[in-house]
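Propose amino acids for all 63 sites.
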């Protein structure tokens, strides 16, 4: 998810995406423990997406 895509989203869409990404990250952690991860890079990517979404959301709330 790119920064430009996130900027076009509304606050509600950003919150929904944060929740979705947190659930995905939760599932990735269980897969990692059970050695079922197919793509370990997805974990880092998901964390970055959550941070990116939170950063843009904070900017929108302050504006």
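Proposal:
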């Amino acid at each position: 998810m790119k920064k430009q895509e996130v900027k076009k989203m509304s606050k509600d869409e950003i919150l929904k995406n944060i929740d979705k990404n947190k659930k995905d990250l939760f599932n990735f952690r269980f897969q990692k423990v059970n050695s079922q991860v197919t793509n370990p890079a997805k974990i880092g990517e998901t964390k970055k997406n959550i941070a990116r979404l939170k950063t843009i959301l904070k900017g929108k709330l302050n504006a």
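The chain has one domain: 3-62. Residues 11-33 form the longest helix (23 residues).
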